[in-house]
Automatic annotation (TrEMBL):
Organism: Sideroxydans lithotrophicus (strain ES-1)
The name this protein goes by in its record: Methylthioribose-1-phosphate isomerase
A Pfam family matched in the record: IF-2B
GO MF annotations in UniProt: S-methyl-5-thioribose-1-phosphate isomerase activity; translation initiation factor activity
Function as written in the Swiss-Prot or TrEMBL entry: Catalyzes the interconversion of methylthioribose-1-phosphate (MTR-1-P) into methylthioribulose-1-phosphate (MTRu-1-P). Also catalyzes the interconversion of 5-deoxyribose 1-phosphate and 5-deoxyribulose 1-phosphate. Part of a bifunctional DHAP-shunt salvage pathway for SAM by-products.
Pathway participation: Amino-acid biosynthesis; L-methionine biosynthesis via salvage pathway; L-methionine from S-methyl-5-thio-alpha-D-ribose 1-phosphate: step 1/6
Length: 363
């Protein structure tokens, strides 16, 4: 089954509502930067590369919205036009606000900022064009970012598949699948590529409390794909490893620091420590757009703290004791020393460090 996490339809962006999967499969429509930012914040779309693609479309949508003829504007947010120059000035002001609202949606996945930076460069490079021309150029760039993401995932998948032996039982945490990207996936892309190459692998999916990306999304994707998958709760991973039931771990990432420290879904660090204890290789599938050379170590990666309601229970069913203090950091950092290899579209960086990462990125 081809999963189109995000798709352009006529004049709008459509995104699968990942909050309600797998109970229901539904697309929601988006027409502005603010609505896309809300879709990212509320986790309609999630996963680092998918967030980046959504943000790129958010910028394009804002340009389309702001460049519409005032009589056909879909929003009360009309431009006060004052000739060609005035029109462009107002347009640029609106665009700047669009960038700001998108940048504030979620803090940890660097792909969001990477995509915004790329869209900004295009916007700046067409300074003399009309808002309508700029909007078309930005839309073309968003389409390119989406297509490129799938190409990168396939290249990464092939590089990662080579690391898995036939029959491997591979554990993963959270969802780094087609749903977390424009398609194919990063960690789950490695599994798809391994199966495509004829390897009989099986997947162990951590449930991934509190948002249940493993139980709801990874398990669903693997079932759709007919890849054997077993669901466990997060606290069962050590038991399975101790009993020799896990051959490798492959996870995705939201941001990798210049020294190779890896931020990913809360609980990943725990899995990495366990893998080290049991001599199990721990791989991170990581497109180059997820490496942040501006951040020296994982200690400087901003970690999102989400609503405590997510920990109280699930959706409207709350089981935590009333009045209890709750924490909800959404990501943790795995030190580079616990990472066996970073699987990228350009190749695998074994025992990642500053030199290895810089060398691969420069090459
Ligand atoms: O909070 P989420 O669901 O956006 O977190 C997603 C993850 O942690 C993924 O593992 C990561 O973004 C990599 S996705 C290819």
């Amino acid at each position: 089954m081809k999963i189109e996490t995000l798709r352009w339809f006529n004049d709008r962006l459509e995104m699968i509502d990942q909050r309600i999967l797998p109970a229901a499969f539904e697309y929601l429509s988006y027409y502005s930067a603010a609505s896309v930012a809300e879709g990212i914040r509320s986790m309609v779309v999630r996963g680092a590369p998918a967030i980046g693609v959504a943000a790129a479309y958010g910028v394009a949508l804002e340009a389309l919205r702001l460049s519409e003829e005032p009589s056909t504007l879909r929003s009360f947010d009309k431009l006060r036009t004052g000739g060609a120059q005035g029109e462009r000035t107002e347009f640029d002001k609106g665009m700047e606000e669009g960038f700001t609202v998108l940048a504030a949606s979620r803090p940890t996945a660097v792909n969001l900022f990477w995509a915004l930076q790329r869209m900004r460069k295009v916007w700046v490079s067409v300074a003399t064009q009309t808002p309508q021309q700029v909007a078309q150029r930005l839309l073309a760039e968003a389409h390119e970012i989406l297509a490129e993401d799938i190409r990168i995932n396939k290249a990464m998948g092939a590089n990662g598949a080579a690391l898995l032996k036939d029959g491997a039982r591979v554990l993963t945490h959270c969802n780094a699948g087609a749903l977390a990207t424009a398609g194919w996936g990063t960690a789950l892309g490695v599994f798809r590529s391994a199966v495509e190459a004829g390897k009989k692998i099986s997947v162990i999916a951590d449930e991934t409390r509190p948002f249940l990306q493993g139980a709801r999304l990874t398990a669903w994707e693997m079932v759709q794909e007919n890849i054997p998958v077993t669901l466990i709760t997060d606290n069962m991973a050590g038991h399975l490893m101790a009993h020799g039931e896990v051959d490798a771990v492959v996870v995705g990432t939201d941001r990798v620091a210049a020294n190779g420290d890896v931020a990913n879904k809360i609980g990943t660090y725990m899995v990495a420590v366990l893998a080290k204890r049991h001599n199990i290789p721990f791989y991170v599938a990581c497109p180059l757009s997820t490496i942040d050379l501006n951040i020296a170590t994982g200690a400087d990666i901003p970690i999102e703290e989400r609503s405590v309601d997510e920990v109280k229970g699930f959706r409207d069913n709350h089981w935590a004791a009333q009045g209890v203090k709750i924490r909800n950091p959404a990501f943790d950092v795995t030190p580079a020393e616990l990472v066996t290899g970073l699987i990228t579209e350009k190749g695998v960086i074994l025992q990642p460090d500053v030199q290895g990462i810089r060398k691969l990125m420069a090459g």
